[in-house]
């Protein structure tokens, strides 16, 4: 019987919701490319309820305990004395989420001799040292596509909120003002702008599709080019490098995974090649940009705005400069964990566990590392190596 160690974010400060804002969430069974949404044999939760925080337990307890497995759920994940690090020693399966990542560094993997499966309840497994997982023969899997559309919607929201100066305008209303000139002196229309995505995978392509009706000029860069018919349908221009795309764009949205090739891709040199007054929207991973270069570019006006929901490390300490930099629309890492998305990633986590325990193959599209090599989606979208360096700084976070 296996010990499953599951790291989830904290419950709401006022406790689990007694009532929800809506009575249901749409039941999505298929994604745009034909892939089916998760298909576990059963679920023990009500879609639309809070599953991603500690008390929600991803709806897994009944299923795991009925099979004799042990489930430990905690939000205490950082530092050598954390529950996560103490429980690792005899754990076979770690479940973690990008929103509140339990960083599985090489040192931690070395302390977990029984660890066989690192499962991401979401998308993005950069919080695992993939090289160490490859070397140790640990399987890494994630619930591909479960929240890609959730993020694409968030990207569109953030683009509009930045370009139209929504957040400061809303603040004027709350302050009792009617300061139209203050609100509009940084407000523009999106129409006609050049918008480019770094990566046109599940999220990037969905962003392009959602932006097309705004009559913008679309651009993308990706290692693999979209089919010609899709390029034509979207009117999207492919660029061989992020640099050639960034130079012509008013808005760049980042939608690639974090791996050694993309770490700090948007550094000072790249940002300085962008048009003055461009915007960056990053819902992919904080480390794909250079933290301090973003702050300097906002302060100098080289960037007109920066928004996103991904930071490094996570949670970000109280003195992280992105909390206080000007012209930003940062949120904590929430775009992929709406209640709608939670129903899918909880079901996908259950599906992967059902396969694992029944010794049946996990869907190829869920695999990142398997059998000592990058596999499935991992072989397509990642490069081997490690992007967890510096994650120990997450221990500096203190609850607000
Ligand atoms: P996909 O695997 O569908 O797409 C990733 C795309 O990135 C692929 O098209 C891949 O190219 C491309 N890519 C990889 N490396 C590079 C590179 N060096 N330059 C250009 N393109 C590159 O994943 P999703 O679209 O679903 O998710 C993308 C990322 O978004 C995740 O890895 C995660 O980090 C982040 N994410 C964030 C969430 C949030 O809540 N904020 C939630 C979900 C995801 P190819 O395959 O052609 O080689």
Descriptive overview:
With 400 residues, the chain is an alpha/beta fold. The chain has 2 domains: 3-146 and 337-399, Rossmann fold; 148-323, 3-Layer(aba) Sandwich (Rossmann fold). Helix content is 29%, strand content 15%. The strands form 2 sheets. A 7-stranded mixed beta sheet has the order 2-1-3-4-5-13-14, sandwiched between helices. It has a 7-stranded parallel beta sheet with strand order 8-7-6-9-10-11-12. β7 (217-221), α9 and β8 form a beta-alpha-beta unit. The protein is globular. The two termini are 38 Å apart. The model has no long low-confidence stretch (mean pLDDT 97). The structure holds NADPH dihydro-nicotinamide-adenine-dinucleotide phosphate. Residues 122-124, 147-148, 151, 198-204, 221-224, 255-258, 261-262, 283-285, 309-310, 333, 335-336, 377, 380-381 line the site of NADPH dihydro-nicotinamide-adenine-dinucleotide phosphate.
Shape: globular
Bound molecules: NADPH dihydro-nicotinamide-adenine-dinucleotide phosphate
> Whole-number radius of gyration?
21 Å
Q: What is the fourth-level CATH superfamily of the largest domain?
A: NAD(P)-binding Rossmann-like Domain
CATH-defined topology of the largest domain: Rossmann fold
**Biggest β-sheet description:** 7 strands, mixed
Q: What class do helices, strands and sheet pairing give?
A: alpha/beta
Mean pLDDT: 97
Strand composition percent: 15-25%
Helix fraction bin: 25-40%
Physical arrangement of strands within the biggest beta sheet: 2-1-3-4-5-13-14
Uncertain runs with pLDDT below 50, 5 residues or more? none
Oligomer: single chain
**At CATH's second level, what is the architecture of the largest domain?**
3-Layer(aba) Sandwich
CATH class membership of the largest domain: Alpha Beta
The ordered H/E elements are: EHEHEHEHEHHHEHEHEHEHEHEEHEEH
DSSP, total strands? 14
Measured between the Cα atoms of the first and last residue, the distance is: 38 Å
> What's the structural domain tally?
2
